[in-house]
Every structure is written in structure tokens, then in C-alpha cells.
């Protein structure tokens, strides 16, 4: 895992590609404090104490750097979900364990949003940044949007948060908790629910709620998802 707590490094300390890692570490630190808007290549280059040309050899522009920070942030979100999954007790029936795993993914998702708001916002920012750039450059004037990279990434990356959720829903179907004929759309609905609540907690009217109330609301949401399975 990246160490984003390091101070400004000396420019003569880079060897064998370490500059790329350092630039990413610094960019992650900026995102952690200020979200995606804080990820500016010039600022990262200045913090690293290197020239523009040295930084551009590793990240061609801000979009490239933001894409790397987005990937890192999404990975940490997935790690938070997996940590919750690993803490689910092994006792009980298979159906009970499947339900516990579903709940754990949702709790881990929301926990990460609250603990790392800057990285959470950044995890979902890069596609929109690219779309806006394409629009400015006229790439969407013919009515063709940029590729849906979020869906593509989720389909091929087993560690993507959505794939982790899909695995939990697979378990629900396999154990008979969720009937196969009700599967279609459930994955997306569950994701939308926890993502929407996370966003309300961070940037919406629920941001003023205290920690205890946020957990109560989270419990109600997760209870509702589980209650709607049959």
C-alpha cells in the first residue's frame, strides 16, 4: 500500500522508477485532503521537487494522474469491503452467512466513505472528468459518448467493489435466500442504495447527522435491503 504520509522528497533520491510511485503518493495525499479537484499535476510536481518534464514522463497530463489516483482510491474502497467480509463469523447456516456477507459489504462501503471522504469522492470522479474533457474537445458532438469505462472496469476486475457485491449476491442465490428470478437488477439496486446513502452522508442533508445517527440510518438501510430479498 502507498505511504502517503511522506514529506517532500529530495529530487536526487529517485532510483529505478521510484518517482512515479512518489508522484502517485503525493497525489493521493492531495485527494485525501481535498478530493479530486485537489489533484493537480503541477502541484504534485512542485511537492516532489522535480521538473515538469520529469513528471510528464510518468503522467502525461492531469487526466492520467487522476486516473491513477482513482484506481488507487477504488482499490482502497474494495479493501475496506473485503476487510468487513473477512470479519463475518463463520458460524450459522450458509444462508445466515450469505446474509451477513451482504450486510458486511454495504457496511464496509459506507464506513470507507465516512473515513476517507476525499478518496471516496475521487474513486468515482475520473470518468466524469474524461467526459467533460471530451465534450470540450468536441468528441461528443456527433452524439457518441466516451466508453462506459466504469462498467468495463467492474466487469474485468474481480477486486472492484461492484464485483465484490456480485459475489455476495451470487451466494444469496446459491443458498436460496434470493430466488434466481429476482436476481436481475438486485446488484445494481443494492449498490445504488449504499452509494446514495454514502453521498447523502458526505455531501447532502444527512452530513450534519452525528456518528450514532448515521449508523442507525445505515442499519435501517441494510435491514431494508435484506428484508426485500424474498
Give an account of the 3D structure.
- The chain is mostly helical.
- It has 2 domains: 1-60, Orthogonal Bundle (Arc Repressor Mutant, subunit A); 67-227, Tetracycline Repressor, domain 2.
- Helix content is 66%, strand content 0%.
- Helix 5 crosses helix 6 (117-123) and helix 5 packs parallel to helix 10 (186-203).
- The longest helix has 25 residues, at 62-86.
- It is elongated.
- The two termini are 40 Å apart.
- Residues 5-13 and 128-149 have low confidence and may be disordered.
Spell the H/E element sequence.
Answer: HHHHHHHHHHH
Report the structural category: mainly alpha
Low-confidence parts: 5-13, 128-149
Q: Which second-level CATH architecture of the largest domain applies?
A: Orthogonal Bundle
CATH topology of the largest domain: Tetracycline Repressor, domain 2
What's the alpha carbon Rg, rounded to whole Å?
A: 20 Å
CATH superfamily of the largest domain: Tetracycline Repressor, domain 2
> Outline, from the CA principal axes?
elongated
Could you say how many structural domains there are in total?
2
Class of the largest domain, according to the CATH hierarchy? Mainly Alpha
Overall pLDDT metric:
85
Straight-line distance between termini: 40 Å
Hey, roughly how much beta strand do the residues contain? Answer: under 5%
Using DSSP, what is the number of strands?
A: 0
What fraction, in percent, of the residue positions are helical?
55-70%
Amino acid at each position: 500500500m502507498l505511504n502517503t504520509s511522506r514529506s517532500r522528497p529530495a529530487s536526487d533520491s529517485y532510483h529505478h522508477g521510484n518517482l512515479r510511485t512518489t508522484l502517485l503518493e503525493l497525489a493521493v495525499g492531495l485527494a485525501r485532503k481535498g478530493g479530486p479537484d485537489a489533484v493537480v499535476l503541477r502541484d504534485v510536481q512542485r511537492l516532489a521537487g522535480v521538473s515538469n518534464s520529469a513528471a510528464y514522463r510518468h503522467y502525461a497530463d492531469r487526466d492520467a494522474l487522476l486516473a491513477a489516483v482513482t484506481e488507487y482510491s477504488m482499490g482502497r474502497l474494495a479493501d475496506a469491503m473485503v476487510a468487513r467480509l473477512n470479519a463475518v463469523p463463520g458460524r450459522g447456516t450458509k444462508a445466515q452467512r450469505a446474509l451477513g456477507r451482504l450486510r458486511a459489504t454495504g457496511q464496509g462501503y459506507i464506513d470507507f466513505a465516512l473515513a476517507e471522504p476525499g478518496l471516496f469522492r475521487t474513486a468515482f470522479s475520473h470518468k466524469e472528468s474524461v467526459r467533460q474533457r471530451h465534450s470540450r474537445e468536441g468528441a461528443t458532438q456527433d452524439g457518441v459518448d466516451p466508453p462506459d469505462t466504469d462498467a468495463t472496469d467492474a466487469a474485468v476486475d474481480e477486486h472492484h467493489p461492484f464485483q465484490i457485491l456480485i459475489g455476495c449476491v451470487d451466494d444469496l442465490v446459491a443458498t436460496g435466500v434470493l430466488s434466481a428470478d429476482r436476481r436481475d437488477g438486485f446488484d445494481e439496486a443494492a449498490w445504488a442504495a449504499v452509494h446514495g446513502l454514502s453521498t447523502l452522508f458526505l455531501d447532502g442533508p444527512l452530513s450534519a447527522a452525528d456518528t450514532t445517527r448515521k449508523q442507525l440510518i445505515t442499519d435501517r438501510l441494510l435491514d431494508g435491503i435484506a428484508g426485500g430479498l424474498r
